[in-house]
Amino acid sequence: MTAPMLSVRDLRLAFGEGGEARTVLHGVSFDVAPGQAFGLVGESGSGKTTVLRCLAGQYHHWQGDVAIDGEAYRGERSRAHARRAQMVFQDPYGSLHPRHTVRTTLAEPLRVHGLDRIDERIDEALQQVGLPPHFRFRYPHQISGGQRQRVAIARALILRPPLLLLDEPTSALDVSVQAEVLNLLADLRGRHGLTYLLVSHDLGVVAHLCERLAVMQQGRIVETLQRDALIAGEVQHAYTRSLVRAAEG
C-alpha cells in the first residue's frame, strides 16, 4: 500500500492549564492518500480549522503523531515544512499584505528559500492560476476577491509543496466566483498530483472537491465516509444527517 501523504493520529489540543484547561481536539485521527482531496466538515466551533492550524504550525502545543510526506511533524514552522505543506486562508484580502504588489507577495517565499529565476517562477505561478503576467504589478485592492484568492493559491503553490491545507477557500467569495475557484483547485490537483485537506462548513463544496470526508463535532470525528455515500444519503451518525438536512433545506 502507498504511504499516506498526511497521517494524523490521536491529535489532541487544549487551551489553558490545570482546572482551567479546555480541550478543543479529542484524539482526531485520519489519513489522506497522495493525490487525494479529503474534507473536514462541521459547524463553526467543531474543531476543523483548529486541526488545520496545528498542521500549519500556528499551534505548537498539541499532542499526537503527525507525518507529512513520510516525515514526522511536531508543529515547527521550518523551511522544510514550508516545502511540504502550504495553507490557503479563508479571507484572500486579509491574507495578502495590502501594501505589497502581487510580485512582492510571490517573490517573498522564493527569496526566503534561496531560489533563482524569480520572475520566471512568478510568471509560471500566475499562469497556473489563470492570471496574466501584468497582474504582478497590482496591489490587492486593485483586483477582485476571486483574483486575490488566485494569487493566494499561487503563493501556496510557488514552492511546489505536495500538500495544500485549504481553510474555507471559497466562503468569502461571491457565489458566482466560488465555482471558478473550486474548478481551478480541482484542475491544479489533477495536473500536479496535489493532495488537499479541505476544511468547510459547506457540504456542497466538499462534495465538489473531495473523494472522502470526515465529519467533526465538538472536537471529535464522528463519521468518515466516501463522497458517493454522502451524495446517496448513506450516512450513519445523527449529526451527519442533520448537516445533510440543513444543506438540503
Automatic annotation (TrEMBL):
Statement: the UniProt record of this protein carries the keyword Ubl conjugation: no
Mode of membrane association: Peripheral membrane protein
GO MF annotations in UniProt: ATP binding
This enzyme's EC code(s): 7.4.2.10
Boundaries of every ABC transporter domain copy: 6-243
Matching SMART domains: AAA (SM00382)
Intracellular or extracellular location(s): Cell inner membrane; Membrane
UniProt-listed InterPro entries: AAA+_ATPase, ABC_transp_ATP-bind, ABC_transporter-like_ATP-bd, ABC_transporter-like_CS, P-loop_NTPase
Record's subunit section: The complex is composed of two ATP-binding proteins (GsiA), two transmembrane proteins (GsiC and GsiD) and a solute-binding protein (GsiB).
Family: Belongs to the ABC transporter superfamily. Glutathione importer (TC 3.A.1.5.11) family.
Stated name of the protein: Glutathione import ATP-binding protein GsiA
Lineage: Bacteria, Pseudomonadati, Pseudomonadota, Betaproteobacteria, Burkholderiales
